[in-house]
Design a protein that fits this description.
Chain lengths: ~800, ~230
Amino acid sequence: MTGFIIKYKWWIISVSAALAVVLGVLIPTVETDPEIRNFVPRTMSSRISTDSIEKDFGVQDMILVLLTDSSVLTPENLGSIKEIDRGFSRMEGISTVNSLFTARKIEGRDGMMIVDPLIRRIPDNPASTEQLREDILANQFALGISVSEDMTAAAVTGTVNPDVPEYLTLNRVDSIIAEQDSEKKMLTGGLPYIRRHIVEDVNHDALFLIPIALVIMLLVLKLSLGGWKSVFMPFSVVVLTVIITMGLIPLIGWKFSILSLLVPIILISVSNNYGIYLVTRYKELKRSEVPPGRREMLKQLTGSLRMPILFSGLTTIAGLLGLLSHSIIPARQVGILAAAGVAVALALSLLLIPSLIYLRERPGTKSRPPRDHSKDLLSRAIGAVSKLVIRHPGRVLLASAVITLAVSTGIAFLRIDTNQENYFPHKHPVRKASELINSKFGGSQTISVMISGNIKDPAVMKGIDDLTQHLKQQEGVGSVFSIADVVREMSKALYEPDEEGYDKIPDSSQAIAQMFELYNMSGNPDDWKQLMNFENTKAHLLVKLSRPENEIIRDLRDEIKSYTADFPAVITLGGYAIIMADFAQKIIQGQVTSLLFALLAVFILLSMIFRSVRGGLIGSIPLAVSILIQFGVMGHTNVAIDAATALLSSIMIGVGVDFTIQFLWKYNSELRKGLRHAAAIAMTYRTTGRSIVINALSVMAGFSATFISGFLSIRYFGYLVLLSIGSCLICAIIVIPAFMLWFKPAFIEANINRTKIKNDKNGKDVLSAVSTADSFTADTYGTTAGCHTVDGQKP
Amino acid sequence: MDRSRDLTMSGNLQSNVTLTITEKNGATRKRVVNMVSKTYGDTEKRMMKFLDPADVRGTAMLIIDNKESQDDMWIYLPALRRTRRIVSTEKGKSFMSSEFTNADMASGSNTDFSISHMPQSGENGLWVIESVPVDDDIADEHGFSRKVTWLEKQGLKIKKIDFYNFDGDLFKTIEILKTQPKTGGGEGYIMTEMYATNHLNGRTSRVLFDELNTSASIPDNTFIADNLSR
């Protein structure tokens, strides 16, 4: 390998730079996909059924302009609503409009059926305002749809026309609102606005989060390595890794999503480690009495560190690839991209850094001696922990078990959240608008029920009516609309209240057909194009949810299925809310499978490294404990599992397993040197313990950039990843040593008895390679200070 | 334009009207009605009875189309044995769910519009006239920002009307495919086949007048609500 690097050093540097340039140029071309529906596969049944409903009834995505005031029925407010309604009606980007000014009243009076606009003229005196209030209260097509029951909020709703670019439509809506005197009382909402905010916030996050994470990492590297020249090499690996990996997104043809934001953060946090190992070892070699020559320097570097770096990278890749078992598409993409990125970082660290070192190296020059860290705060804290664990391993284990069990009780309160409105902070306009829509306008999320059959058949129409009335009574349902509502309303105009047919579905298909014809004569056929198709062979029942929680959606889905089991027509159930409920199910499945996959992969790797199944199991303890703590804390703090937090476990497994490996192998190497258990643990603390803590802190520092994300979900991800890595760290340096002292497991003892460890084919032993790495990682952070006694024992 | 409008004022008319609406996906809906109409100054009265499809056969409508005030409409639903009067003020409303509006089906008034020649007017034997609603309320009532009418210079027959939406885009075109002179001499004509295309949603509507009789004597008591159920 040394020969290869020396021979092709310029090629390695050129290819690395060229790859970064070529792929970096592609980055600006990447598109952001804000559509959360695309998180689930197109083959999922709820997506198929929703697509089929939307084929007949159009996309149900609505833009809402909401006006709030002590009363919306003032001339100024009504004037603004009218102007917005007019603007919507004239826009090509909006196919149907619903407002106080498009609402009709169908009424029977003196033998007449009167179909007229709800507001003919804006009332200008108290009497006409009161009349309008009464008209609204009696109008089921306006109340709770265009105006709230308390008359403090009004909504103008437009269904988007997918043939017009959405940004153009939203820009037009914004300019119409800006022209209104009541602009300050207005809020905008609905999925198109949510999508726009997602695109804006993702782009904003990408522009700010990534540079901030890079700056944090630069500072961490400076603190760890000292000189800027030393910082340059691992930092260049970080930058190149991020550029190359992000450039893969447009190259593959994928789009950027909220979850994609996590890829550069993961890479910035993780990819510097391998470079740190190499640069530190390089500095160490430079500090030798007789520093080796360039070729020998490279040989020692690559020879001793290749295997441990590879193992560290492979465990991280294994954890990240656990995300492949997710059915959430962007989660799989994050898994592939992050794993590919770690692979790139590995390759760059093992090829580019040695090449740069080779070129930089001036034979004969010697580095300054390392600083003595033995008395700093971190070393003192580690010393205190080490004393506690060595003196009371049983109590430490018991306390850890009790704390873990206590915290894990929170798992019982875990909840899944797929509502993308909750990605945003509470004061965000999206949240404010959605809270208003849910509380005053029946809700922004919908379930669609498509009925395929002869809609004019009275049995079918009565079935639609029964289902409509039944669903109106269900928990979490804000409002329900169907063609049966229109037919009943027409029957109220055609019959007197004391007549048999009043407020009823007619008994003959001719009567229903003639009612449809009557409406065609008097109303706008577009009025019900969302409720019934042109051929009268399909009807659409729209359920708005005031409480779009997954449990409620699932209950409603089951209720609709059982209620329509004997329906005299074909029922198709879909809609955004149903997709989101399925999405929640996929998150749970993905969470479980990715967790099992990552645990299994890491267990196999650990078993190989420790050459013991028991070693694999014990090495997995910190991960298991951290998983319990992570979910327990989420349950207790009411942080939901969502698309972003569902990725936590795999990332944590990939990153957090290193700490245990480092600790155990250093411990093993100390035992092999002949130290007794407590002394070996003390020595491990003093050397590797410090490096593990600093390694964990550097990863945590990288992830802390997520704290300033515009998305609440990403921020929670950041907090939880810190918690997870923190608990992995604590387990590795507290639970694992206590376990070793208390149980003295055979797999770690077994190695001591070996007088000679078999070499692998490459002549490099896995155990010694890892141990070598540990001694270097310990040195990485300058912990080569002289030994002192712990618990009165001399090593 | 006033002269052109006068030529289309139908006076008395009896005909079977076939309206075919075709969706973008090819689905069609066909209605056949028997129509009798008579013009009284600025008021046009129409009696329409559905002949086809079977489930709406016998449904009948009486429309009193007032040029300057709201229309009156009565409808009889045979399955319910009910006659109801429908009051509506919207001229831009669809005619029987088609792409034609009630205003398109009537002779209309030019006082609602500012009328001017387009630059190409007079070329190729055609006048090209632009009509712009005089105010926003009238524009909203009619549902377009302007329309452009192509008229034959000789005879002032309308050939085509383009309608533009509020974004200034062409959204609907009505073509006059066939006309027939009014019986009894004079320059007046009846549009016997019209075709409307909605450029935004791809829907088209065709109205065909056959068995047309413009000279029949139509008693005034034809246009009373009691006749709807007969």
